[in-house]
Amino acid sequence: MRWHYKVSHRLRSLFHREKAELDLSEELQFHLQNQIDEYIAGGMDAQEARHAAFRSLGGVEQVKEECREARNMNVIENFARDMRLGVRMLRRNPGFTVLTILCLTLGIGANAAVFSWVEGILFRPYPLVPHQERLVALSGTAGEEREQTSWPDLLDLQKSCTLCETVFVSSITGATLSIGERAEVTTGSIVSANYFDAIGVQPILGRGFAPGEDTGRNGHPVVVISYRLWQTRFRGDPEIIGKTQRLDNVVHTIIGVAPARFYGTFVGRVMEFWVPASMVEVYNAGSNKLEDRGARWAEAFVRLKPGVTRNQAQQEISAIAARLEVAYPATNRGRGIKVWPLWNTPFNHASHLLPTLQIMVVVAMFVLFIVCANVGNLLLVRSFARRHEMTVRLAMGASRGRLVRQLVTEGLLLSTCGAAGGMLVAYWCRHALVLFFPGDVLYLPGEIDGRVLGLSAAVCLVVTLAVGLVPAFQTRRLALAETLKTEASAVMGARGRAWFRSSLVVLQVTLSFLLLVGATLLMQSLSKIRATSPGFSTQVFDTSVPLVTAGYDAPRAKIFQDELIQRVRALPGIEEAAYARVVPLSYQSYSSTPIAVDGYEPQPDEQPTAEYNEVSPDYFATMSIPLISGREFTRADDENAPPVAIVNQTMVARYWRGKNPIGQRLEVKGNWVLVVGVVKDSKYYSIEETPRPFFYVPLRQYFAIEPDIHIRTTQPLETIQTALMREVRALDPNLALYEMITLQEQVNRSTSEQLVAVTLVALFGGLALLLASIGLYGVMSYTVSQSTRELGLRMALGAGASNVLRLVLSRGLLLTTTGIMIGIVLALLLTRLLGNLLYQVSPRDPLAFAAAFAVIALASTAACFLPAWRATRTDPIRALRAE
Amino acid sequence: MAKPTDLLQGTLDLLILRTLVLEPMHGWGIAQRIRQVSKEVLQVNQGALYPALHRLEQQGWIQAKWGESENNRRAKFYSLTPDGARYLRQEQAQWKRLSLAINHVLETP
Q1: Disulfide: which of A348, A635, A665, A860 matches A267 by Cβ 3.0-4.6 Å?
Q2: Does A78 fall in a domain?
Q3: Are residues A578 and A683 in the same domain?
Q4: What is the C-alpha to C-alpha distance for residues A18 and A384, in angstroms, rounded to an integer?
């Protein structure tokens, strides 16, 4: 292999370009000289010989260009030269360059940011965890309803599932963490002992859980803490292992510290500690959850064996669930287990954000298309300006391929700058999603990994080809002689060259129309959601007192709660006040129980369940939830009284077939309770939910130490907060108060996903409209400048300014109308994709279409008006003389 | 600008390489030599000769060096590289097979 000849030669031609040029000239000169000598020897005179010699060579410059071309099989050299030329061209037109790069930054940045969110939230949500593509989430099913899974079911699944590598549990929980004087509510996970092995993350200090640490009720008070907790609360104490920490007032031994970038396995929140499942009752009191098959609390995942598909796993797991149904009919009748892809995990934020992110992917693509169309248009305008340059180069013997390469290289330069800017945008926007969830400590990171970079590079490449090839497409049709002779003048509405630019504009109008329709629909939906009554008064303040942290047990808490509510009622301006364990529309979950109803015969595969809230007397009055019949809870409904319940309308309709249930019995967690009242339905988890059966029990009979206090008052929030704080301190100076918010704020927080979608689609829609208007303006200005002669002629023949105005405007509006027409057809097909995000708004709502139509029509008229007006200023004399 | 067809281009390359087997030569000399040896049948298109030389150099089959010509002018002399020699042998064999085959077809009654 004599590669060194090649390499040394190519390097020489790369670095000694001027020398190579001189050599080439000298070489040809030598040839010509010899030829001339020969002709003179043959009897020609010097002048004649000279001409003949040049003729025989066939054009010195062309031979030179071909020699250069032959040498330029050197790709690197060619590329380097094109780059240098490209940079020079771009520097010469800074306005054009900046505008183009800004557009591209926007387009590529929007896509990269959305990709990074999709990657970081849906596909690779758990940093440091290897092979996430093999992880799936598990949930229980009861008919159509989704629920959690029970510990014994999971143990059976782990034993008999052949396609599962491991089954593991990671249930989110909160705990009050006290260190010295301070106390703080933190979020952590209750996990199975195999957790750290199953996800493939090992603690950097100490150890993970040992097999068996998830067995034995309350048997293993050990905890693995997060790196952040270790650094902030324990100041990175290297001797931390073996020390103890109180969690919800139970002393745990710290056995490990998780790695720095490991945040647990819950999309949307950062986990601060991990405790084994044996300790579940500390955090989530109730029955013995490790043995009770009916207690469904576990949020579980499965790591599938390599090569196993989700469908195969689902089939096997369904078969196992069916066997469990037969073996344990009392708890498992009508229940199955469902496998979910990680990006649709039902028990964390993944499934909430999925529809929003899907819409965002589509929207970002639209923006990219619009940007490509716009930049393509800008480049086209420039390519017309450069037509002369290109033609001259063609005439000098450059091949068309050479010119195309040059144009594509310029495109690559632009899109690389755009991509670099875009990656910066994506990097800055990594944590931007969280901004839409005020008040919640959320963690929704974008992940910029190899796949995101790769995808963005692919986008960049496509953009390069798109924007580089558009002008190249035009050079293909350069007619040498014609272009060199004259700048051909066009006629208004002439076909030919203009059609390509026009269709780019039509494309932009169409896409902007789609985005605007989408934005309007989402806005309508959001305002509908905000306007929908949740079924309770939203002018209620809500907060709670951290009694658990302060070490209150149930008897002390009961005394405290009674005293506090009396003091609160005595405050000026207080209308009503009551306790409830769960605030509606918050992320807290209600208690759930299998129920039985006198006289209701369930279907063979049905296990009726319902959720309920534990509330104090006067709750319904405080919340303004109307009582339809019967009575409210009273102070008499305490631990010593017979247990009672109040049910909602949907529950009456479903289980009592609409008959009056008062005086009937209902079985709650194995005890029969008496129904004493019926209240109107209200919203429990979200505004969009359909009515669900729900009931209430007295707080005293189903006691919770830390319920929320709900206060209806005419006073402003600050006043009532200060007053409440004073009363709490008067009772116990060591107590603090959690954040106080109105239920309206709670409603707003629960609609954050819609807000994200509305904001982003509206933002992109506005942007698209702006870009499309610029595009339309560009095309119209160009058309007008190209048809000066025609316009001059028309005016010389007597056309008035209004005729010319009409002519130009109608041409521009034709483009808009075409774009809108296509947009309407596409929108009718596409807006269905918004389905999940739309609440009580038809995807084909005529109002949204009309609004988008009006906005685009207005914007495009404005965009066309300036060029049209300029056309009326055409001076006929000068226009005609210019020929 | 019409470029020579592939066949012609390939043929020219072959002729150039064959010419350089004997000694290093400059472009002018190569053109002359081909004309003489082919008994004036083959007129080398001089416009195509130089691009071909540069292409062959780029391929690494010939290399160039400046030197003095017979009439004391500075000239660029091309010589065959070992790679080029090997390539020539291959192409010559190929050419012989091809021309034999064509002769055979043409002369079969």
Answers
A1: A348
A2: no
A3: yes
A4: 31
A10 lies within 8 A of chain B by CB: yes
A698 by DSSP, 3-state: which?
Answer: strand
pLDDT tens per residue across span A5-56: 666 666 665 566 677 788 888 888 888 888 888 888 888 888 888 888 888 8
> And the tokens for A372?
């490509």
| pLDDT per residue as tens digits for the range A315-365 | 999 999 999 999 998 888 888 999 999 988 888 888 878 888 888 888 888
CA distances from A68 to A122, A393, A659, A671 (A): 53, 14, 96, 95
Give the closest residue to A702 by CA, choosing from A678, A728, A671, A675.
A671
The partner residue sitting opposite A70, judged by closest CB among B26, B45, B51, is B51
Q: Which residues of A touch B76 (CB under 8 A)?
A: 23, 26-27, 30
The answer on pLDDT for A513 being more than 70 is: yes
Residue A287 predicted with pLDDT over 70: no
List CB contacts of A373: < 8 A, sequence separation 6 or more: A504, A505, A507, A508, A775
pLDDT at residue A203, rounded to an integer: 93
Q: Are residues A790 and A718 in the same domain?
A: no
Question: Whole-prediction pTM value?
Answer: 0.70
- Is A5–B83 a contact, with Cβ atoms under 8 angstroms apart? yes
Minimal C-alpha gap between A474 and chain B (Å): 21
Residue of A nearest to B30 (CA): A31
Inter-chain residue contact B75 with A30, CB threshold 8 Å: yes
Instruction: Judge whether A19 is closer than 8 Å to chain B, CB to CB.
Output: no
A319 shares a domain with A361: no
Would you call B50 an interface residue with chain A, using a CB distance cutoff of 8 Å?
A: yes
pLDDT tens, residue by residue, B14-50:
888 888 988 888 888 888 888 888 777 777 777 788 8
| Residue for token pair 């472009």 | B27
**Shared-domain flag, residues A312 and A399:** no
Distance (Å, whole) CA A281 – CA A290? 9
B45, B54, B66 member nearest A67 (Cβ)? B54
Task: Please report where in the chains the tokens 């990006």 appear, as a residue.
Answer: A343
Which of A67, A84, A107 terminates a domain? The answer is A67
Decide if A738 contacts A729 (C-beta within 8 A).
Answer: no
Q: Are residues A328 and A369 in the same domain?
A: no
A222 by Cβ neighbours in 10 Å (0-12 / 13-18 / 19+) ranks as: buried
Note whether residue A746 is domain-resident.
Answer: no
In a domain, A719, yes or no: yes
d(CA B67, CA B69): 7
Q: How far apart are CA A498 and CA A511, in angstroms?
A: 20
For residues A278 and A152, membership in a common domain is answered with yes
Last residue of a domain, one of A703, A737, A771: A737
Does A115 fall in a domain?
A: no
Q: Grade residue B4 by pLDDT with cuts at 50, 70 and 90.
A: very low
The per-residue pLDDT for A549 is 63
Same domain? A618 vs A725? yes
Instruction: Name the nearest CA neighbour of A29 among B36, B79, B31, B50.
Output: B50
Q: Does A57 touch chain B (CB under 8 A)?
A: yes
ipTM of the complex: 0.84
Residue A478, pLDDT score: 57
Q: Which domains does chain B have, with CATH numbers?
A: 11-107 (1.10.10.10)
Residues of B in contact with A397 (CB under 8 A): 1
Tell me whether B57 touches chain A (CB under 8 Å): yes
CA distances from A186 to A174, A177, A222, A233, A545 (A): 6, 7, 16, 12, 15
Same domain, A429 and A467: yes
Mean pLDDT (chain A, rounded)? 84
The total domain count for chain A is 4
Q: Which domain holds residue A578?
A: 546-737
Whether A59 sits inside 8 A of B47 (CB atoms) is: yes
Instruction: Mark yes or no for CB contact A30/B73 under 8 Å.
Output: yes
